[in-house]
Each structure stands twice: as structure tokens, then as C-alpha cells.
Design brief:
There is one protein chain. By secondary structure, the chain is α/β, with parallel strands linked by helices. The protein has three domains: 148 residues, Alpha-D-Glucose-1,6-Bisphosphate, Chain A, domain 3, CATH 3.40.120; 216 residues, Alpha-D-Glucose-1,6-Bisphosphate, subunit A, domain 3 (Alpha-D-Glucose-1,6-Bisphosphate, Chain A, domain 3); 87 residues, TATA-Binding Protein. The chain is 40% helix and 22% strand. The strands form four sheets. Strands 1, 2, 3, 4, 5, 6 and 7 form a seven-stranded mixed sheet that branches. It has a five-stranded mixed sheet with strand order 9-8-10-11-12, sandwiched between helices. The two termini are 28 Å apart. It binds 6-O-phosphono-alpha-D-glucopyranose. 6-O-phosphono-alpha-D-glucopyranose binds next to loops.
Length: 468
């Protein structure tokens, strides 16, 4: 059963991520493309087990259906593939990746016009199409034959992608500072792009976790305070100005400041929005998902701008950004983009912009964060994930969505929203959300308050109430 989640289709290799399911999905997409007269497609892949092979399998089905495939035959950051969809003005593209999921997963992200994540409507329709397909309907052309007949064309967008980011970044300001930067691609795909950009800007760059390891060193390729431990230690020990970590497919990032503090994606968003408004004098609203810091609302308010809230999933961020001509959009899970760049999140671009910010302001991240907290107050977020089995999920669904019950919290409730999961807004400005992840079998409980103790109190109340 192929089911798309928050960020594409993801499944355990050998269980549901199989050649036959991949071919089914590809045929479903090919059928849709044929109906829409879309006859070209770009595909790239990450560094996971079976990714390259899977990209070839997908290309074989596309070629079998008469669709011309631009095949990126080197590991590619997801944002580079999205960039290719945009630049080549294609209607569709795909990445073989399971992003930040555990090593036994792989998956497919589908992109649509302009280089954005396929919307829920598109992926729902592809799911419906897939259900109609019988095995004998799948058309396949051998990969080598397709290359010989130029149905599959080898394509390399690397230079264009790098140049675009370089042109959007104040390289001169960075060159003057000669920053020392430590990169942690988390065994993923950001190395070549980030290293090239930063070295062009004359930064001194060193790397950790850059070899090919499909087990990701036994850790999740998802940048967090826990997974970036070595980056943190090395930044402090060797006196780097900044540590940059990117997730498995480089669309998200995690940052370690010069003092070794993990800078939460919430703070990265706040820093960049503040920088663009205050130092670059840009204008425009911000878009965040409903599990992302309300510090952004405060910054927007302070500059006479709007902050828009959307459900989790970058496709929602992209649509709202387009609708409101927002300056920046992002999520607490670590992805963001800026107006004028691709519609999807880009860890490589976000990292380059942060380096620019440090150079232009001549302030380290900790100093800039103090500046923000002084003006707009402190916001602390507690984040928890709880596993469950099928029956447990039924029980939780009933409490949260059917009976619409919430705990007796220690803080006065202002309102409750069911936009995505259950979000309770408190009168003191804090909030808590409980929602089922669309990428992992987890109930995510996040809360934000003016201090961590209060955030943890409401999380505990939710946990006890749900009996998890
Ligand atoms: O909380 P989840 O549903 O697991 O989603 C967490 C993240 O997963 C993927 O990376 C999506 O691309 C993001 O848009 C989303 O924020």
C-alpha cells in the first residue's frame, strides 16, 4: 500500500520500499503526466542504500512511458533537484530519499511546477491512480537502452545551483571575515555544494561525518542537539566560528554557535527573519507551521508585518508564501526558504545566508540572539515524541478528535484549534500541540512558553491525560 505522508512516500527497505512498489508509484505518476501532456522529468537521489538503483528503476518506467528523463547521476541535495524542476520549467521531478528517517528507510519525494513539494491533492490523486494499476500495465525500458536512445539524458545542475546561491549571497562581506566553519553533512549529500560555496567565499572549511555510510554512523541523519554532539565538541575545542549540520538530503539544517550551543531551528528562523528585516531592510510577512515558535509573530509585529500559520508540511508553507508574497517561510523541524529562491526548503541556501548574516552584522549568533530576546522576549519549546501501536492510536484518535477532550491545564486556555492535530492556545501567550507525525509512527507533543519549566509542565499534563 503506497501512502504519501508529510514529505513524500517513505517506507522500510524490503518491507514496502521494494522495486515493485517503486515501479507502481512511477507508473501512477507517469499516467498522470501523460494525461497532462507533461513529457519531461528530472530525477536525483541521495546517499541511502538502494537510492541510485531506485532512481534508475524510476527512470526506466518513465522512459517506458515515453517520458524523457533528465537523470542527475551524482548524489544530489533535494533542494538541487527542486531547483532543477524550477529552472528547466518542468511540471514534475523526484528525489529518491527518505530525508532524515532512520537508515532502514528509503522513499520518494515528488516535486511539481516551480520546484515545490507536490501538494496533498496531487499525491492523493497519484495514490488513486496507483490503485487502478495492474502489474502488467507497468511499462519499463531498460536503463542502458534508454540512455543509448537518449530517452534518459545524464544531467548535472550542480554549477547552476551553486551559482544561483552565490549570486543571492553577499559573498564580498563573507570574504572579508575569513570565518572558520565546521561542516557536518551527517553522511548525507550537502558536502560538495556547501564546501564549494563557503570556500568560494574564502571561509576556512573542515568536515566531519562526510564519508559514505548508509547506516549514518548509527544515528538519525536529523540535526538536533543530540545528534550534533561531535560537531558541538569540535566547534568549541578547535575554535570554529560556526558549526553547520544538514540532514540526510540537505533540505534541513541544524546550527552550533561559536560557544557550542545548539541553535534551534526556531531560532534560526527568527535570526534570519530579523536579519532580513532589520539589516537588509527587506519587507514582507513570515509563514510558519503551527508547531513553530511564536517568536516569529512577535518579530513580525515589531516590524509592522504579518505572521501566517499553516499545517505541518512544507507544501503548506510554499503555498502561503506565494499567496502572501512572504519574505521567509519555515518550520521548527529545520527547513526554510526565502522569497525569490526555490519554493521548497533548502539547507544549503539557509546555511549560506547565516554565514552572510554573521559577516554583515559582524556579530556572532549568540550576540544576535541576545539582541532578539531583549527586544521580543524569550520563547522556549519542549518537544516530545511518543510511539504507539494500532489500538493505542485508535484510543488517542478518539480522545483527541472524536471526543475533542483536553486536559485540565495549569494555565488558562484561550482557544483550541484543530487545523492539524490539536493545538491549545493559552492566555499567557504559550501553546501546546499534540499531532500525529506524517513521517514517523509518533504522536508529537510540542509546547512553547516563556520558560522551559512551564513548557514541560503542560507537556506532562498532556502526557498524563492521554496515558502515554
Ligand atoms: O511532524 P512530521 O509530520 O513528521 O513532519 C516533519 C517534517 O517532515 C518532513 O521533513 C517534511 O518535509 C516537513 O515539512 C515536516 O515539517
Amino acid at each position: 500500500m503506497i501512502k504519501f505522508g508529510t514529505g513524500g512516500w517513505r517506507a522500510i527497505i524490503g518491507e514496502d520500499f521494494t522495486k515493485s512498489n517503486l515501479q507502481l508509484l512511477s507508473q501512477g505518476l507517469a499516467n498522470r503526466m501523460i494525461q497532462e501532456n507533461a513529457d519531461e522529468f528530472v530525477i536525483g537521489y541521495d546517499r541511502r542504500f538502494l537510492s541510485e538503483k531506485s532512481a534508475q528503476w524510476m527512470a526506466e518506467v518513465m522512459a517506458g512511458n515515453g517520458i524523457k528523463v533528465y537523470f542527475i547521476n551524482k548524489i544530489a541535495p533535494t533542494p538541487m533537484i527542486m531547483f532543477s524542476v524550477k529552472e528547466m520549467k518542468l511540471k514534475y521531478g523526484a528525489a529518491i530519499t527518505a530525508s532524515h528517517n532512520p537508515a532502514d528507510y528509503n522513499g520518494i519525494k515528488i516535486f511539481t511546477e516551480g520546484g515545490r513539494d507536490a501538494s496533498a491533492e496531487v499525491t492523493n490523486e497519484i495514490e488513486v491512480e496507483i490503485r487502478k494499476i495492474e502489474v502488467e500495465d507497468i511499462k519499463v525500458m531498460n536503463f542502458d537502452k534508454a540512455v543509448n536512445e537518449e530517452k534518459v539524458v545524464i544531467y548535472n545542475p550542480f554549477n547552476d545551483y551553486i551559482d544561483t546561491i552565490i549570486n543571492m549571497t553577499d559573498l564580498k562581506a563573507i570574504k572579508d571575515k575569513q570565518l572558520k566553519i565546521l561542516l557536518d553533512p551527517m553522511y548525507g549529500v550537502s558536502k560538495t555544494s556547501l564546501q564549494t560555496i563557503l570556500m568560494t567565499a574564502r571561509c576556512e572549511v573542515e568536515l566531519i561525518h562526510d564519508r559514505h555510510d548508509t547506516l549514518f554512523g548509527g544515528r538519525l541523519p536529523s540535526p538536533s542537539a543530540e545528534t550534533l554532539g561531535r560537531l558541538k565538541n569540535n566547534v568549541v575545542e578547535k575554535g570554529f566560528d560556526l558549526g553547520i549540520g544538514t540532514d540526510g538530503d540537505a533540505d534541513r539544517l541544524g546550527i552550533i554557535d561559536e560557544k557550542g550551543n545548539f541553535i534551534h531551528p526556531n531560532e534560526i528562523m527568527a535570526l534570519l527573519y530579523y536579519y532580513l528585516l532589520k539589516y537588509k531592510k527587506w519587507t514582507g510577512p513570515v509563514v510558519r507551521n503551527l508547531a513553530t515558535t511564536h517568536l516569529l509573530d512577535k518579530i513580525a509585529e515589531g516590524f509592522g508585518e504579518e505572521c501566517y500559520e499553516v499545517p505541518v508540511g512544507f507544501k503548506h508553507i510554499s503555498s502561503k508564501m506565494e499567496e502572501t508574497n512572504a519574505l521567509i517561510g519555515g518550520e521548527s523541524s529545520g527547513g526554510l526558504t526565502i522569497r525569490g529562491h526555490i519554493k521548497g526548503k533548502d539547507g544549503v541556501f539557509a546555511a549560506s545566508l547565516l554565514v552572510e548574516m554573521i559577516s554583515v552584522t559582524n556579530k556572532h549568533l549568540s550576540k544576535l540572539l541576545d539582541e532578539i530576546h531583549e527586544q521580543f522576549g524569550k520563547f522556549e519549546m519542549a518537544e516530545h515524541g511518543f510511539g504507539f501501536d494500532v489500538e493505542e492510536k485508535e484510543r488517542l484518535l478518539k480522545i483527541l478528535y472524536t471526543d475533542k477532550k483536553i486536559p485540565e491545564f495549569s494555565f488558562e486556555v484561550e482557544r483550541v484549534s484543530y487545523m492539524d492535530g490539536v493545538k491549545v492556545f493559552f492566555k499567557n501567550g504559550g501553546w501546546i500541540i499534540a499531532r500525529f507525525s506524517g513521517t514517523e509512527p509518533l504522536l508529537r507533543v510540542f509546547a512553547e512558553m516563556d520558560c522551559m519549566d512551564k513548557a514541560e509542565i503542560v507537556c506532562k499534563e498532556m502526557k498524563e491525560f492521554l496515558g502515554i
